[in-house]
Design a protein that fits this description.
The structure holds two protein chains of two kinds. Chain A is mainly alpha-helical. Chain A is built from eight helices and no strands. Helices cover 70% and strands 0% of the residues of chain B. Chain B is built from nine helices and no strands. The chains are: A mainly alpha, B mainly alpha.
Chain lengths: 181, 187
């Protein structure tokens, strides 16, 4: 195996292990999370994003040679419509593409079924891509835009302010949950 | 350095006493995994691996398939970092389950969770159809929860915020409808 493949496998093991320990092999965690009956999903996601946000900005500012960032383009129609379809699917499956694999590894039947459904959906997307790409993905492409570029502020400052905001939301969700339970 | 070690031990002690909640520990671990991924290859992203893998598989059965499909030309069908990440995730979950020494809580289906459709058939169909939609939607949008949210929002990418808002708007609506008859103690 090449170094990149080994790194991918290692990163995946860490990612899958943490998701499994956080409870994402069970599809109910996502369903209840989206119905606001349980804040675990939101708290795990926001914590992961906040840590990654500070880490990415610190790497980009002080160790740019280690900052392999990859900002995705904002082609409005495709991102919005894709997001809506994704949200419906996430809700009825109780999984996203990553947690379905965690369900599969965790021995949950529905994780396997979601992975199989996902492979089918991916195959259909490959086949219809030539038809939908010119309509939904080419037009209204705003490119790889970031919040700090749009606002014209330094990356690290924007990331730290946003991370503080996210930390505040996490603390608020946590208090809200401990009060209601 | 010494201060660092002391604080690390303090954290470990708190974990042992059970004062650090699991969501904080494992959410933080996912964040550290993200930093590792960025420092070594690229930010975390799962959904590209699905069409890469299925393209690779179909190309083995129908030679020339990968060359005939523009989307596969774009993303490639190499079993590289992305596909290995996905294999690793299933492996990591398996490892966690084995080390934990218990898998009974999860059962064969999601029936252990308060989900609205108790019949194994309906639930299984939902899992499959939901899987279809998340991959189709993610490929149309160019990323999923990991690529657009964990990685996109962490890099302050506007596409990540827009995807996140769209996915949550639709997801919350459907989940509220599905779980509206759930009693509070079950949820």
């Amino acid at each position: 195996m090449e170094t990149k493949q080994i790194l991918g496998l290692l990163t995946g093991v860490l990612f899958g292990f943490a998701l499994h320990r956080a409870g994402f092999s069970r599809c109910g965690i996502v369903m209840r999370g989206l119905a606001f009956k349980d804040f675990t999903m939101l708290k795990v996601m926001l914590t992961a994003i906040t840590v990654g946000m500070v880490g990415a900005a610190v790497l980009a500012t002080f160790f740019p040679e280690y900052a392999n960032l990859k900002v995705k383009p904002l082609y409005v129609w495709g991102v919005v419509l894709g997001g809506l379809i994704f949200g419906v699917g996430m809700s009825i499956a109780g999984y996203c593409p990553g947690t379905a694999l965690v369900g599969l590894g965790g021995g949950v039947r529905d994780g396997l079924l979601t992975v199989l459904g996902g492979l089918t959906g991916a195959l259909v997307f490959i086949l219809v891509y030539p038809a939908i790409e010119p309509v939904l993905m080419k037009p209204m492409d705003l490119g790889k835009v970031t919040l700090h570029e749009v606002l014209g502020v330094p990356y690290l400052a924007a990331a730290l302010v946003m991370a503080a905001l996210f930390a505040g939301i996490i603390a608020w969700l946590n208090r809200l949950e401990s009060r209601t339970s | 350095m010494i201060a660092n070690r002391v604080s690390h031990e303090a954290v470990e002690t708190r974990v042992r006493k059970g004062t650090l909640p699991p969501w904080l520990i494992w959410g933080g671990m996912i964040g550290l995994t993200q930093i590792f991924a960025i420092a070594t290859v690229q930010p975390l992203g799962v959904s590209t691996a699905y069409p890469q893998f299925v393209g690779w598989l179909v190309d083995k059965i129908v030679p020339g398939f990968a060359e005939s499909q523009p989307y596969l030309q774009k993303i490639g069908t190499k079993l590289g970092w992305e596909v290995m990440l996905v294999f690793g995730m299933a492996l990591g979950a398996l490892l966690s389950r084995m080390l934990n020494g218990r898998s009974t809580g999860e059962g064969a289906t999601c029936a252990v969770d308060p989900v609205p459709f108790r019949s194994a058939w309906t639930r299984g169909l939902m899992a499959f159809v939901g899987g279809f939609l998340i991959l189709f939607g993610a490929r149309l949008a160019g990323g999923c929860t990991s690529g657009h949210m964990l990685s996109g929002i962490a890099q302050l990418a506007l596409s990540g915020f827009v995807f996140g808002m769209a996915a949550f708007a639709a997801g919350v609506l459907v989940a509220m409808l599905m779980l509206r008859n759930q009693s509070a103690q079950e949820g």
